[in-house]
Specification:
This protein has 141 residues and is of the alpha+beta class. The chain is built from four helices and six strands. The longest helix is centred in the last third of the chain and has 14 residues.
């Protein structure tokens, strides 16, 4: 199908994922005009939230740019499991990369995983040049 059709199916697709993983969480934000346009889309699967405390205490937050007809940015958080394998935690697809959207991602991640950054066992690595060190503490819930 077309890119337009694929984006329209996101809600349906993730509703189907929820049938298999009842703890799957997603939030979609679109423009309010007639032709709705995706502005940001946050999701995580249930298993990372359940097993988060078993992972190593390092969370890496990074981004990559989406290429093709519809440009955007994918923000992702990952951790390392006890066997040294990468364990994906949460994701956000957004139409552009801004400090506001990074802040939204960090707040959503922190509130959904019930994280406190003042706990010494959490080490955060954020690869984003516009966030100051203290901005990371916005997700303290």
């Amino acid at each position: 199908g077309s890119f337009e059709h694929t984006y329209q199916l996101l809600t349906i697709c993730f509703a189907e994922v929820r049938l298999v993983d009842p703890d799957f969480v997603f939030y979609i934000q679109t423009t309010s005009c007639k032709n709705k346009r995706l502005t940001r889309y946050f999701w995580y699967f249930g298993s990372p939230k359940k097993t988060y405390k078993l992972l190593r205490p390092v969370v890496v937050i990074n981004r990559t740019f989406l290429k093709g007809r519809y440009h955007g940015t994918l923000l992702a958080t990952i951790a390392i499991d006890p066997s040294n394998h990468i364990f994906p935690l949460a994701f956000l697809i957004t139409d552009s990369e801004t400090t506001k959207k990074w802040t939204y991602f960090l707040e959503m991640f922190g509130s959904n995983f019930h994280l406190k950054l003042d706990i010494p066992c959490n080490i955060w690595i954020v690869n984003y040049k516009y966030l100051k060190k203290n901005d990371i503490f916005l997700i303290d819930g």
